[in-house]
Design goal:
It holds the Pfam family 2OG-FeII_Oxy_2. The chain has 410 residues and is α+β, with helices and mostly antiparallel strands. It is built from eleven helices and 17 strands. It has three domains: 76 residues, no CATH class; 229 residues, Jelly Rolls (Sandwich), CATH 2.60.120; 73 residues, no CATH class. The site of zinc ion has 8 residues, from loops.
Length: 410
């Protein structure tokens, strides 16, 4: 279900609650409509007539297992105290204002030589039939994304792909880079290398030079195609990943938002239009501290002479060599496990952990380990632990709430 659809459903039930507040809580609940509904019903009056109508329309029924206490789900600091909207929106266009507002990104228009950008777009259009919509689960409901995705690899016999259960739930059928994708890979790698000179490398990041030999490509066919709020999964790319994204085709708004509130204020939603041939590098910490999305567009969008309303985004990324073949399997059910980072409660914010993929894929399993990155440089090392004291964590420099919390503890 698209974020827009979820919001419409929630607006129908909680007519007194502002749209921005609904969005805020929906994001805090990782997009779960049922959790959002459950939380809100404890604070705000439910419009029961509308609720009955909405339930009939959408087939939604509140399940008691999602009625957990507010504090379990989100940091109580992030709960709105007023019904009216407090969330701001900002639309940023220039490199200067974007990088000043979000220090975790580099923005570069007209990154590729014009003919390379056009041939990349043509190459992707020739491959568009192999793109497919992702399916995923939200609160027990199977959902189909309304954008299409394909994962590409630079090497034709990539052994790593058979271990990649993260995106596909099974063996992943990867595509191969075309000529233009290879040329762009070289240019992107040079750019990331140059940018890395002015950024400190964290111990959790690979010691080797950054490579962009895996591409997750998204295709937005129409202006209504969107990508829900999310951050990229860390399981293969590891903690503090660098991801370089190239947009070609129609211009769409890339939205980003910090995941935890500052001084109890909901964070602004920052919209960045990404025209044809724009590079956006998401540096270390971006996936940890922000969520991003591509909003459906209600107004006209700027199309491209070659692709019309179609837009592709190519996200070049590197699998972390220290995590290949090392991810733990669930001791309870044998499923693969996903690497994640805690952020909702300030006490735990920054701690990395492994959670059973079964729970993500709609099976009830609470399989859990803390993540331990102490030996990431040693091949096939153990990257998990049952001891919380041995857990690896990363705290953002600008996380003042966490800094204040740590002060009170010392
Ligand atoms: Zn499990």
């Amino acid at each position: 279900m698209a974020t827009e659809t979820k919001l419409k459903y929630l607006e129908d039930i909680f007519s007194s609650v502002g749209r921005d507040v609904l969005l805020e809580i929906l994001i805090s609940c990782d997009g779960s409509v049922e959790q959002t509904e459950s939380l809100l019903s404890e604070q705000f009056p439910v419009d029961t007539k509308r609720k009955a109508k909405s339930a009939a329309v959408s087939g939604h029924q509140k399940k008691s297992k999602y009625q957990r206490s507010i504090s379990q789900l989100i940091d109580s600091n992030s709960l709105p105290t007023k019904v009216e909207s407090t969330s701001k929106k900002m639309r940023l266009f220039t490199k200067e204002e974007i990088e000043a507002s979000v220090p975790y990104v580099t923005f570069k228009r007209d990154f590729l030589p014009a003919e390379v950008a056009n041939s990349l777009l043509e190459e992707l259009l020739s491959k568009q039939d192999i793109f497919t919509p992702n399916t995923f689960f939200i609160a027990g409901n199977k959902c189909v994304a309304n954008h299409k995705t394909k994962v590409f690899t630079a090497s034709d016999d990539d052994e790593r792909l058979q271990y990649d259960v993260e995106l596909s739930g099974g063996k992943l059928d990867m595509g191969s880079f075309g000529d233009s994708m290879r040329i762009v890979q070289c240019l992107v790698e040079d750019e990331v290398e140059a940018l890395s000179q002015s950024r400190e490398k964290h111990d959790f990041q690979p010691k080797t030079k950054w490579t962009g030999d895996i591409v997750v490509a998204n295709l937005f066919c129409e202006k209504s195609s969107n990508l829900d709020w999310h951050s990229d999964r860390l399981t293969k790319i590891g903690p503090l990943p660098v991801i370089a994204s190239i947009s070609v085709g129609a211009t769409r708004d890339f939205r980003i938002r910090k995941i935890h509130p500052f001084n109890k204020n909901p964070n602004p939603i920052i919209s960045i239009p990404l025209p044809h041939n724009t590079l956006l590098v998401m540096h270390a910490g971006f996936q940890e501290e922000y969520k991003h999305s591509v909003a459906p567009s209600s107004g006209p969008i700027e199309g491209h002479p070659i692709s019309g309303q179609k837009r592709f985004s190519l996200t070049y990324r590197q699998y972390h060599p220290g995590l290949v073949d090392c991810a733990p399997t669930c001791s309870k059910c044998g499923s693969a496990m996903l690497l994640r980072r805690m952020y909702k409660k300030v006490e735990n914010r920054g701690k990395y952990y492994w959670s059973c993929m079964g729970s993500y894929a709609n099976k009830e399993c609470k399989g859990f380990y803390w993540a331990n990155f102490r030996n990431l440089d040693t091949p096939n090392s153990k990257v998990y632990t049952t001891e919380e004291s041995e857990c690896s964590e990363w705290i953002a420099d600008d996380d003042t709430a966490k800094a204040a919390y740590l002060m009170t503890r010392s």
